[in-house]
Specification:
The complex is a heterodimer.
Chain A (H helix, E strand, L loop, with lengths): L1 E4 H15 L3 E5 L13 H5 L4 E3 L4 H13 L3 E5 L5 H19 L8 E8 L14 H6 L3 E3 L4 H13 L4 E6 L6 E4 L12 E4 L4 E6 L2 H11 L6 E5 L2 E3 L3 H11 L2 E8 L4 H12 L7 E5 L8 H7 L3 H13 L4
Chain B lengths: L2 H24 L14 H8 L7 E3 L5 H7 L3 H8 L34 H14 L5 E6 L6 H12 L4 E7 L2 E2 L2 E2 H4 L4 H7 L3 E6 L3 H16 L5 E6 L20 H8 L3 H7 L3 H24 L26
Parallel strand pairs in B: 1-2, 2-3, 3-7, 6-7
Antiparallel strand pairs in B: 4-5
Helix pairs in contact in B: 1-2, 1-3, 1-11, 1-12, 2-3, 2-9, 4-12
Classes of the chains: A alpha/beta, B alpha/beta.
């Protein structure tokens, strides 16, 4: 067991898979120089046929990965900026994702779309601060959002080995985070959530980096409210069974989701809980505001989910309906 | 069988197939619409005659001709268009997504030029493998104004990919005439990337076959991509529903002028009458068989609507709880 940071853990998983699977290659903008650090050293180790710098042509290189996958390879495509996914959305959601069904099971497209640094990171303003995981979950694309170094490693292995397209969002806020990585970290199965901390009063579903806010709040409110911190890890397919078990115990639900409020993942979680689970208090969502991120840091902070909002929501849900 | 005979047979199969498809759409045996290839047969036929079985193509919304010319099974095609379980795509794709990966057909595509980067990825993969396999991407004149195609031309030239771009210029992006949609010249754009570009008479199957043969040979020998602009024409509407729409973007005279250069009529004139008669009978028999097969094939079970969405076998949620 060693202490590692999130980004190197993710990079290590990619390197280990590159070494294990000669059919795997990685493409993206500036991946040789590795501006994001995930592909550092891969060009030197694996060469020009495995590590390809792409022109700034997101649609083309996303479809390029699909074609190479149809020809029998596996690919990791890096997007330096989360909103570049909007340029590639047609090629991911309308092409790669649908090919399996459209071809009646003939095609498989084992491609990972990697965003190392998704979400806001202070001062990058409207076009570099989105965290668009809800869009891909909505489109039925397998979507993972690891919050710890061990999960970053284990989910990278699973995403690469999966025979379907997988969106891999590494939140900007957790890239420098330290955590434990077992010497032999197994793949973390896609579709399996994790309960970071058990509790009996309120289930807090925290999506991505806000897991760490939820853990801090759980600590802060210890003795007052017993919080169960639920990390979905995979957003699609969602681990409804584990959530149902958790909510079955607590009967109270708060969701922290750093995506826009309207049609964000939090809306889906609350809706499914309302339809299929027993709740004794109205569920609450803490989300981004439905607004682009403004440049000034005060304005950015004002629209992102905060610990204060979470504390308030947990207290409200914990006391509602009690005598 | 002579080359002319082979090419004629393929072109006639495409034309008769499309005529049957229109009847089946009109009879509501085929749901939705189909984009007929009638008039353009020489392009798919000439290009695919230059390919090997292990070469790959990406097709378009007007894809039946490409599939037939690449060797797709007519029974499987017809069953797919009728939405049956024995269709090439098990009834999940239909006309706009019909594919046969086993023989290198990476699918028709409902989005203009969206298959072009697939061809680049496959071509790159072949060249890294050291194989002599080639990829061909078909698109129309409308596709020339899609960013993804221009991005693909760039990378194909940059990396000297074994990729042949086939622009089927039928003069219209749906109803918008080329002179109203496209600045400059089509081959001029390809040439600007440093790609060998050729203007080809798309109504002459031998001209297409010759140009495709040169392009494919160049690709196999490591000489990089080629761009073929095949000037052709579709005799009917953008899709089958256009017949009822009374559109005015083309004149009857223009259509008639192109029909005078019909590649099938030209092929028949160069073959003896007995051969033509025999091939017609054979093609009709094959299509009768394909339609009979398709009609016999079972319709998909609605209970299977969530199948084939994921290679991992994941079953997505239904639209109601539980």
């Amino acid at each position: 067991m060693t202490q590692v940071r999130y980004l190197p853990a993710m990079a290590q998983a990619l390197r280990d898979e590159m070494a294990a699977d000669p059919s795997l290659f990685v493409i993206g903008e500036d991946v040789r120089e590795s501006l994001r650090g995930v592909t550092r050293g891969l060009y030197e180790e694996f060469g020009a046929d495995r590590v390809l710098d792409m022109p700034i042509s997101e649609q083309m290189f996303t479809g390029f990965a699909t074609g190479a996958a149809l020809a029998g390879r596996r690919c990791v495509v890096e997007y330096q900026i989360p909103s570049l996914l909007y340029l590639a959305f047609e090629q991911i959601a309308n092409q790669a994702q649908k090919l399996r069904l459209m071809t009646g099971g003939q095609a498989k497209v084992p491609v990972v779309y990697l965003v190392p640094g998704s979400g806001a990171r202070l001062g990058l303003a409207a076009q570099h601060s989105d965290h668009p995981y809800s869009l891909f979950a909505h489109a039925g694309v397998k979507t993972v959002l690891p919050s710890t170094p061990a999960d970053a490693y284990g989910l990278m292995l699973s995403a690469i080995r999966d025979d379907d397209p997988v969106l891999y969002f590494a939140p900007a806020a957790v890239l420098p985070l330290r955590g434990e990585l077992p010497d032999q970290q197994d793949p973390v199965p896609i579709g399996r959530a994790r309960i970071h901390r058990s509790g009996s009063d309120v289930t807090v579903v925290a999506v991505g980096h806000v897991v760490h806010d939820a853990l801090a709040v759980a600590q802060e409110l210890e003795g007052e409210v017993s919080i169960e911190v639920f990390d979905p890890r995979t957003l699609f397919p969602f681990d409804w069974r584990l959530l149902s078990e958790s909510v079955g115990r607590t009967r109270r639900l708060v969701v922290v989701d750093d995506s826009n409020r309207t049609c964000g993942l939090g809306a889906e979680i609350v809706a499914t809980a309302a339809e299929e689970m027993e709740l004794v208090a109205r569920p609450r969502r803490i989300t981004r505001a439905d607004v682009p991120i403004a440049f000034a840091v005060e304005l950015e902070r004002a629209v992102l989910p905060s610990r204060e909002q979470l504390v308030e929501a947990v207290r409200a849900v914990a006391t509602e309906g009690r005598p | 069988m002579s080359e002319t005979e082979r090419l004629y047979r393929t072109m006639l199969t495409i034309r008769r197939f499309e005529e049957r498809v229109v009847d089946l759409v009109n009879a509501n045996e085929i749901a939705g619409v189909a984009h007929e290839y009638v008039g353009q047969e020489a392009v798919a036929t000439g290009v695919c005659a230059a390919l090997r079985a292990d070469d790959v193509i990406t097709s378009t919304h007007r894809g039946h001709g490409h599939l037939i010319a690449k060797g797709a099974d007519l029974r499987g095609m017809m069953a797919e268009l009728l939405g049956r379980v024995d269709g090439l795509n098990r009834g999940r794709g239909g006309s706009m997504h019909i594919a046969d990966l086993g023989i290198g057909i990476y699918g028709a595509n409902g989005i203009v030029a969206a298959g072009s980067p697939f061809a680049a990825g496959a071509a790159w993969s072949f060249s890294v493998d050291g194989s002599a396999r080639v990829a061909v991407t078909f698109f129309g004149d409308g596709g020339m104004n899609q960013g993804v195609l221009q991005e693909t031309l760039n990378v194909a030239a940059l990396w000297s990919l074994p990729l042949v771009f086939v622009c089927e210029n039928n003069g219209y992006a749906v109803t918008l005439a080329q002179e109203r949609s496209t600045a400059g010249s089509v081959v001029g754009r390809a040439a600007a990337y440093g790609i060998a570009a050729e203007d080809v008479d798309g109504m002459d199957v031998h001209a297409v076959h010759g140009a495709a043969g040169r392009a494919v040979a160049r690709a196999r020998e490591g000489g990089g991509p080629t761009f073929l602009e095949c000037r052709t024409y579709r005799y009917f509407g953008h899709h089958t529903a256009e017949r009822t729409m009374k559109l005015t973007y083309r004149t009857a005279e223009e259509i008639e002028r192109w029909r005078l250069r019909d590649p099938i009529v030209a092929a028949e004139a160069s073959l003896d009458a007995d051969t033509v008669e025999r091939i017609r009978r054979e093609v009709d028999a094959v299509l009768d068989d394909a339609i009979a097969f398709a009609r016999e094939s079972a319709r998909p079970d609605p209970a299977d609507a969530l199948e084939y969405a994921y290679a991992s076998g994941l079953r997505p949620r239904r639209g109601v709880p539980g």
